[in-house]
Amino acid sequence: MAEPKPWRKIKFKTMAITSDLVKHLRQLTGASIALCKKALEETAGDMDRAMALLKKSSEALASKKEGRSTGSGLIESYIHGVGKVGVLLELRCETDFVARNAEFKTLAHDIALHIAGVKPGYIDQNHVPEEAKEEAKRLFLEEAGSLGKSKEMTERIVAGKMEAHFREVSLLSQQYVKDPSISVEELIKRHIAHFGEKIEVTRFVRYEV
């Protein structure tokens, strides 16, 4: 009887990191070429894992930049269609170098376009006035009160409805109109990772005739 062959470790081939693969990841995420290449190398060319890695790194970088001041930026104006809807947006960054960059200007334009189409009322939930919260709470209490639930359950229902409502009408938590798989906040975080600077929406106004 022949002796069994010694066990050999099998080497699995990893996907080659081509320029087309890097470009495709950049189109999907908006991250820089260098970051996309690094993410693909660290995940052996796995596109899904590379996207998850870039998302995690962009969130971490955005968190680190949170305390920085934004001394530059631009005002973006957008008129939709035949002039019935208009938006003024203030998008800020740290330096004039980034503010003059074409990709930063495109970001401002895309956010203004989103505001025109989706009609957010606030930047985020921290910008919701107390009177708006109180009015929403009053309306949701009236709705929940008719369900005949206990006081504790009613309060939970109202809290959940308020959270969902203000997430829906807050710009940063809305699904990005040009790519519903991400939020506007995620879109901005990708550009923070790309530029290495803090970027923030400081105010906007939407007009409609």
Automatic annotation (TrEMBL):
Domain Translation elongation factor EFTs/EF1B dimerisation: 48-209
Compartments, as annotated in UniProt: Cytoplasm
Keywords of this entry: Cytoplasm, Elongation factor, Protein biosynthesis
Alphabetical list of Gene3D superfamilies matching this protein: 1.10.286.20, DNA helicase RuvA subunit, C-terminal domain (1.10.8.10), Elongation factor Ts, dimerisation domain (3.30.479.20)
InterPro entries listed in its UniProt record: EF-Ts_dimer_sf, Transl_elong_EFTs/EF1B, Transl_elong_EFTs/EF1B_dimer, UBA-like_sf
GO CC annotations on file: cytoplasm
UniProt-annotated stretches for the region Involved in Mg(2+) ion dislocation from EF-Tu: 95-98
A matching Pfam family: EF_TS
Similarity comment: family membership: Belongs to the EF-Ts family.
Function: Associates with the EF-Tu.GDP complex and induces the exchange of GDP to GTP. It remains bound to the aminoacyl-tRNA.EF-Tu.GTP complex up to the GTP hydrolysis stage on the ribosome.
HAMAP family: EF_Ts (MF_00050)
Descriptive protein name: Elongation factor Ts
Organism from which the protein derives: Candidatus Giovannonibacteria bacterium GW2011_GWB1_44_23
Organism lineage string: Bacteria, Candidatus Giovannoniibacteriota
Gene: tsf
